[in-house]
């Protein structure tokens, strides 16, 4: 189950509307709508923490491996990296469509590609001229 689906189900179980949830976790109504629609994810781990505390759950409940990869990419390298990571996850999902790989094999491929992504990011930093580094 994706993050947005989990959030929507939990919100409904508590009998909250989207506005009330937004106030509880300190984000805008538009943000909650976007989360539930699967159009975006929390940009900061702090939001996941607030959600976990509010719903009295472990933070890992909200983070699938793919979502954690996207959040980590944004924390380390910013918005652009998060978009690239999300695209990578989406395209990898398309790669597996209709295939005959076991779940373990799919996970192994995903982890390998994610590691290649991190390695490429590190190499980019190494070869970026100093005047462009942050």
UniProtKB/TrEMBL annotation:
UniProt keyword annotation of DNA-binding present: yes
InterPro entries: Cro/C1-type_HTH, Lambda_DNA-bd_dom_sf
HTH cro/C1-type domain location: 7-62
Alphabetical keyword list: DNA-binding
Pfam families: HTH_19 (PF12844)
Highest taxon above the source species: Bacteria
Gene Ontology molecular function, alphabetical: DNA binding
Entries under PANTHER family matching the protein: HTH-TYPE TRANSCRIPTIONAL REGULATOR XRE (PTHR46558:SF11), TRACRIPTIONAL REGULATORY PROTEIN-RELATED-RELATED (PTHR46558)
Protein name per Swiss-Prot or TrEMBL: DNA-binding XRE family transcriptional regulator
